[in-house]
Amino acid sequence: MRIWTVHPRYLDPKGLVALWRETLLARAVLRGETKGYRHHPQLQRFQAQQDPLAAIDTYLAAVLAEAQSRGYSFDPTKIGGTRMRTAIPCTDGQLRYEWRHLLEKLRLRSNVDFARWQAVDEPRPHPLFHIVPGEVEPWERVS
Question: CA-CA distance, 77 to 115, in Å (whole number)?
Answer without folding.
Answer: 34
